[in-house]
Amino acid sequence: MAEKEFDTDGFDFSEVEKRLGVSRRTFLTFCMGVAGSLGLSTKSAFAMAKAIAEPKMRPPVIWLHGQECTGPTESLLRSEQPSLAHLILDMISLDYHQTLDAGAGHKVEEIKKKSMEANKGKYLLVVEGAIPVNDGGIYCKIAGETMLDLTREAAEHAAAIVAFGSCASWGGVQSASPNPTGAKGAQAVLPGKPVVNIPGCPPNPANFLGTVLYFVTFGKLPPLDAQNRPKWAYGRLIHENCYRRPHFDAGRFATEFGDEGHKLGHCLYKLGCKGPETYNNCPSLEFNNVGGGVWPIGVGHPCFGCSEEGIGFNKPMFALADVKTHTPPNNFPDIDDRQSSSGVSPGAAALGGAAVGAVVGATLVAAKKLSASDDSSNSDDQNS
């Protein structure tokens, strides 16, 4: 793609090239990809690029940790599109993060309070981990203060609040019965405050980065669903986009780990896969930027519904999911009867599988061409 095809109204991206160490083309291609995943126009992609290019627009971020395993931060550390370093240095001003702060003790806490005071109504609050409320919240303390009080204090003048991960969104494993600490998600302890939930265990870093980019660009959070999750990331059931879906429709299931169906990549519904009742974009994003099916279903394990309140940490892992949607034809026999039924002919199943395979194959070929083109472009830029 020729660089002149990017109409950026004459905006100078030379400083971005120096900071990021990537070509103007690579940078703009990334912004267009993020905008595309958000369902936004090319014009919005350029707006994102300009927002990143102008450091004065970087929002201060206060990042709190409650009851959790630090999985959300760990997933963010492995992000490559962009890397965590680029996120911190070029998109946001990470003023306080208990895991990543170079300093410690009273000095760090003082910096946090000064940043919150100086940036009232401007900073982004990110909550990671559940917040215990029983006995006054004494089960999680930082610098002598409870997580409950710290969250309420930081939320008071935040421009936006992001609950990153299932623990911060719903309470996570800590909130499972009997929940002795009274663990809750951020929105439960901040009634009346707008909280965007980005659940997952761990959550995909791309869902966080896309949300932050939207906020940096437009000064507001993206459209949310009824659970306060970004629609662009949690608008579709995993079941709808899963590449094992043709096996579900054809009645081909793995019934035990390691059986013939499991080895052949058949549907994992009978092993307790919660994909039919879980909203997330795992099939399209995968994890760790390495490709090759790196996500639970891709490596042969059922989805356990981590991004759904009341499912991931409350419903038995191998219990059957509630199937929320079907695709035509809708006259399949019941799940229990399907495997021994002749309701779907081998020819019809093969035809359906071939059609889906053609679409998936075409998508993979296009992605490989784009990757090869980008590598070639980078090489050309370096040699020029």
TrEMBL record:
Residues 234-317 form the Cytochrome-c3 hydrogenase C-terminal domain. Its EC number is 1.12.99.6. It is found in: Cell envelope. It is an enzyme of class 1 (oxidoreductase). [4Fe-4S] cluster 1 binds at residues 69, 167, 201. One of its GO terms (cellular component) is ferredoxin hydrogenase complex. [4Fe-4S] cluster 2 binds at residues 239, 242, 267, 273. [3Fe-4S] cluster binds at residues 282, 303, 306. It catalyses: H2 + A = AH2. GO terms for molecular function: 3 iron, 4 sulfur cluster binding; 4 iron, 4 sulfur cluster binding; electron transfer activity; ferredoxin hydrogenase activity; hydrogenase (acceptor) activity; metal ion binding. Residues 69-214 form the NADH:ubiquinone oxidoreductase-like 20kDa subunit domain. Keywords: 3Fe-4S, 4Fe-4S, Cell membrane, Iron, Iron-sulfur, Membrane, Metal-binding, Oxidoreductase, Signal. PROSITE patterns: TAT. It comes from the Bacteria. One of its GO terms (biological process) is anaerobic respiration. Residues 340-349 have a biased composition (Low complexity). Residues 329-349 are annotated as: Disordered. Its cofactor is [3Fe-4S] cluster; [4Fe-4S] cluster. Belongs to the [NiFe]/[NiFeSe] hydrogenase small subunit family. Heterodimer of a large and a small subunit. This is hydrogenase (acceptor). It comes from Magnetovibrio blakemorei. The lineage of its organism: Bacteria, Pseudomonadati, Pseudomonadota, Alphaproteobacteria, Rhodospirillales.
